[in-house]
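Q: Convert this sequence to structure tokens.
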Amino acid sequence: MNTQISSQEKPNLVTVVAVMTLVSGIVNLFWGLIATGAVMVTLVGIICIPLTILPTMLGVFELIYAAKLLSNPPQPVQPSISIAILEIACILAGNVFSMVVGVLALVFYNDLAVKDYFARLNRTSTPGQNVEPVTPPAPASFPKPEVEPVIPEPATAPPEESPAPENPKTPRGRKVA
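A:
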């Protein structure tokens, strides 16, 4: 059985995620550059620069990830939940479009066809190589000891305990807390 994945077997949702990620990457690059230029003119804006760096850096990562998803032959990649979460975090920079893309990506990653595609994609190590599924070894049972430890029983019953002496300061009938 050849487990190489061709471009015909790619589910539509994977292509949708790749295109959305590509468009979101372009939008985030421009959004981050424009926001960085806008905040550089004020002192308060300079303090807010870390919020403008997120979309710019995320845009670069999104472009790289989308290129891997759209490549032919496909490259082994995992669903990037971290990119989707960072897309949602772009709402801090005012980018609603990226937030929507992040939410949709998380929803699409949970689809069974997408999960199956990524599982098959990551199982292939080299093109044309037959890869058998790896089964984990059966759990080893604990070996029984050769001699079971024995605790000897006392020959006589323990003596009964005498009642505790009463406290002379506590009046009878009252309970001590």
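Residues 145 and 151 are 15 Å apart (CA to CA).
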